[in-house]
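Reviewer has doubts. Consider these tokens.
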Amino acid sequence: MNSLNRFVERVQSIWGPLSSEVVAGCKQQLDELMATPAAEPWLSELHQSAPTQQEMHRDPHNGFVLLAHTEPEGLFRPPHDHGRSWVIYAVQQGEIEMGTYARVQDSDGKVKLVKRGSTTVSAGQTLAFLPGDIHDTKCISGPALLFRFTERDLKKEDQEARKLTRYVEQDGDWVPKMHCSIERLES
């Protein structure tokens, strides 16, 4: 059994409604997956093919999805949330800087983001975001190979529930953008 199959089996065995234990258990399994030797065939193929996005597993019973992304140095994805979903990012190669934000409303009722800070996620590290958390990503050392583990299919979530929010820069502030397709977020 390879490490990817072991990851799927272990996540299936701990899966349940959102809780500290489920997030910690999935994070631990991603930490172990990131320790996979680069010579393991499935990971070696990912390094060689360097896909912009590749689905690694879609769980038919529990709904979680594991995607692999290869990102060039300098690629920036503006602030966004993942709607009702929680997400764990895991970096296998390279470094990704992830900024975090709070959504605030000023006295005129205008919504904007205030940046809380940023974290550099290096090879072998993971970072979790819960429903409603807002973040951006920037590849600062690449190409980076990262995995995005989501509790549900975000494309379906966006198309059906319209719960994902993206932000655009306007007059120096990040403000909510009108609904657009998640393909932009993932491309």
About this structure: Confidence is low (pLDDT under 50) at residues 179-187. The chain has one domain: 3-186. The chain is about 25% helix and 40% strand.
